[in-house]
Structure formats: structure tokens, C-alpha cells
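Key result, reporting period 2: structure in, sequence out.
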């Protein structure tokens, strides 16, 4: 009987290990893509420094998710939020990246406070599903726009703002990478994103578009961005909209991931709520706070965790194995630095497409619900700001419900959020 129990335990550990490695393989593209976004021209951040920060945050927070929350979810810098950091805060608002890291830190502080109190339930229940979906769709379009820009498929134009770019060799390679990753995704290959990035990088190297680094194996860079945040510089009234928008984005992105994956995998309690939701959200909150400290955009639970759960991962042990897989990535900075922006363009487009597909869940029969969702979706890419889309989404939702005579259906918490959003916009644009 003891031997039977031992075999069962070994089998369970093996299953969790396979699940953990599967999760890592499906999300490992973030090790290259995140520093490529944050160290884009104009931000001033170090690629190697951000890569080290990405790996460090992913390792620590995924490990914490496994040991504390006991959930099979991996944590890493979120797609969409990293674009918000680089293109809205640093490039768009011309903020030093040190202050932008301070904004991430304070968003994490607020997120921790909300996650540790009943406020998390109140806010989560108050946010209409229409706006949650709209934010995801808008961010998906935003990521696709950045991917098309990085590929050279679209370029700036003084008359029409954007136009079709020249179909040069780099653009063709980007399209090829998109096709490769799409074909592999169709076959459910967990390495689809990485193979697409690697194929384009290899072809670019063969064609002489990128150079081989002097050292193939590097050392972690803990000097460039680690603990370089400007905490007090980020505490300005004019930056409060960005802090709260980032916190709200992280909050309902985390809730959506936990709820969606937990329900799909049957990991819910007797009341239909995801198991260990409070603990999971708290880890996500510390992933945002910790991101500002280590030098990257805020971390969040990854939807790719569902791939490991499908392989049988059901406990925190899955996350422990995923976390361990990140450790070798500390030494791959030199190789990752070879990856050109057009090699990751296909991944941005595909991630954007996966976020866009949730648009089918929007209800289109009532204009007072459709217009706020539409404004949220369209304002995120057109203003190049996730903040603007989310804030105007809250304000317009409450405004249109009042105009439609449905004000009694509005939850008090949502009205308060809309009033705060209006105040934040007044502060931001009042200057």
C-alpha cells in the first residue's frame, strides 16, 4: 500500500512538472518581447536590464503564486500594460522612465491595499462586463498597432497621421514570422511564438540585418534599472490618473484571468468563485509593486497558465516548476539582444488578435451599453493611452445610463469610480 501511495505521489509530481514546463513554454516569449517594448527607441531603458528585471519578477512572483496562493498560475509583466508604460507614459507623456517605474510602484501599493480589503470585491462587482471586455479589446488593438508599426507595415504621416509603409525586407520577414507562429498555433504548438521570433531573427542574421553578439552567454544586469525608480517623483497630482488607471487595469485584468481560467478548469468553490482568489490577487498586487522595484512594467497572472492546467496542473507545485524554468533565462541577455523589433511584431499582432476575439461577448442591443464600450475600445489606440480609454469608459457608461433613465441600475461604487475618473481627467487636462 505504501508503494502504491509513493507511485501515486510520483505520478502527481510528474504531472505537475509537465504542466509547469508547458506553461513556461507558452509564455516564455515575454522574456524577449517585454524588454523589446520597454527598451524601444525613445524610452532610454537598457534591454539587458529590463530582461533581467523581467526574469527576476517572473521567477519570484510565480514562485510566490505557487507557495503562498497555491495556484497553478504563472506571473510575468503583462502584455498591454508594458505598452502603456513605454508608449503612453515614457514616450507619450515624455516622462523619465524612473518616474514611470515610480508610477508602477504606487499603483502596486494601491492594488495591495485594495486586494487586502473588501474593496476588491466591491470594485470587481461594480465594473460592468461590457467595460471589462471593451478594455481588453482596446488593448488588443493597441498591441496590434504597435506590432504593425514595429514591422514597418504602417508608418507616420504628417497629413493622414499613419499610412502604409514600404514593403521592404524587414516587413516581409515580420509577415513571415506572423505566418509561422499562426501555423504553429493552429497545431497547438506551445513554442509557436518563440519559433516565430527565432525564425525571423535567424533569417535576419543570415541576411546580415543583425549581428552576432560578442558573447553568447551573458550575465544578469542588476545595475541598469534595478531599484532605479523615482518613488517621490511619481507622487504628483498630475500623475494620479496614470497611477489609478494602471491599478484598475491590473485589478480587472487579474480578476478576469482568475475567473475565466478557474471556471474553464472547474477550479471553483461551492459558490462558484475561483479558489484562493484573495491570495491570488494579493500576489498579483505585489507583482505590480515589485515590478517598479526591479525595473519593469507591472506583473500579472498569465492566461497562458491555462495550457499547463489543461496538462493536469492543479496545485501550486505547477507554478513552482514554471518559476524554476525562468532561472536559465538570466544568462540569455546577449542572445535576446539580437532579436530585432520586426521579429516580435507577429507576436504582438497575435496577442492583440487573441484579446480582440472577446468582442463577440459584447451586447449590441442597447445603445447606452454599446457606446461606452465602443468609446473605450476606440480611444485606447487613437489616443495611444489605455488611461484615456478606461477613464472615458467609466464616465460615459454612467452618463449614458442616466440619460437612458436607467440610473437606478447603477451601482454606487461604479458612480464613485466615474466621479473619480472625471476628477482625474480634470486634473490631467486642467493644466
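The corresponding designed sequence is given below.
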Amino acid at each position: 500500500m505504501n508503494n502504491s501511495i509513493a507511485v501515486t505521489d510520483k505520478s502527481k509530481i510528474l504531472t505537475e512538472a509537465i504542466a509547469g514546463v508547458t506553461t513556461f513554454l507558452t509564455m516564455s516569449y515575454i522574456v524577449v518581447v517585454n524588454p523589446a517594448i520597454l527598451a524601444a527607441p525613445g524610452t532610454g531603458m537598457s534591454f539587458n536590464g529590463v530582461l533581467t528585471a523581467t526574469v527576476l519578477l517572473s521567477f519570484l512572483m510565480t514562485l510566490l503564486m505557487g507557495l503562498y496562493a497555491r495556484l497553478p498560475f504563472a506571473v510575468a509583466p503583462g502584455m498591454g500594460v508594458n505598452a502603456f508604460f513605454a508608449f503612453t507614459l515614457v514616450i507619450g507623456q515624455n516622462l523619465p522612465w524612473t518616474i514611470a517605474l515610480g508610477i508602477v510602484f504606487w499603483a502596486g501599493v494601491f492594488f495591495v491595499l485594495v486586494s487586502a480589503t473588501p474593496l476588491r470585491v466591491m470594485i470587481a462587482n461594480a465594473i460592468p462586463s461590457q467595460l471589462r471586455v471593451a478594455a481588453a479589446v482596446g488593448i488588443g488593438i493597441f498591441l496590434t498597432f504597435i506590432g504593425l508599426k514595429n514591422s514597418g507595415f504602417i508608418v507616420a504621416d504628417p497629413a493622414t497621421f499613419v499610412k502604409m509603409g514600404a514593403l521592404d525586407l524587414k516587413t516581409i520577414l515580420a509577415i513571415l514570422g506572423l505566418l509561422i507562429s499562426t501555423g504553429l498555433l493552429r497545431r497547438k504548438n506551445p513554442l509557436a511564438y518563440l519559433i516565430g521570433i527565432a525564425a525571423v531573427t535567424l533569417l535576419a542574421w543570415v541576411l546580415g540585418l543583425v549581428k552576432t553578439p560578442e558573447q553568447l552567454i551573458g550575465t544578469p544586469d542588476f545595475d541598469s534599472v534595478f531599484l532605479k525608480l523615482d518613488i517621490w517623483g511619481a507622487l504628483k497630482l498630475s500623475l494620479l490618473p496614470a497611477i489609478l488607471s494602471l491599478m484598475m487595469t491590473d485589478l480587472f485584468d487579474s480578476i478576469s484571468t482568475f475567473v475565466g481560467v478557474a471556471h474553464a478548469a472547474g477550479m471553483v468553490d461551492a459558490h462558484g468563485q475561483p479558489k484562493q482568489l484573495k491570495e491570488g490577487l494579493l500576489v498579483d498586487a505585489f507583482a505590480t509593486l515589485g515590478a517598479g522595484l526591479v525595473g519593469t512594467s507591472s506583473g500579472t497572472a498569465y492566461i497562458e497558465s491555462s495550457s499547463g492546467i489543461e496538462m493536469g496542473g492543479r496545485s501550486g507545485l505547477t507554478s513552482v516548476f514554471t518559476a524554476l524554468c525562468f532561472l536559465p533565462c538570466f544568462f540569455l541577455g546577449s542572445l535576446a539582444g539580437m532579436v530585432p523589433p520586426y521579429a516580435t511584431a507577429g507576436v504582438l499582432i497575435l496577442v492583440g488578435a487573441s484579446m480582440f476575439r472577446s468582442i463577440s461577448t459584447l451586447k449590441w442591443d442597447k445603445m447606452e451599453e454599446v457606446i461606452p464600450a465602443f468609446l473605450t475600445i476606440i480611444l485606447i489606440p487613437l489616443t495611444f493611452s489605455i488611461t484615456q480609454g478606461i477613464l472615458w469608459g467609466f464616465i460615459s457608461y454612467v452618463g449614458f445610463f442616466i440619460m437612458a433613465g436607467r440610473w437606478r441600475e447603477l451601482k454606487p461604487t461604479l458612480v464613485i469610480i466615474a466621479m473619480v475618473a472625471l476628477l482625474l481627467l480634470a486634473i490631467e487636462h486642467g493644466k
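The first strand starts at residue 75 and ends at 77. The chain has a mean pLDDT of 83. This case is discussed further under Risks and Mitigation.
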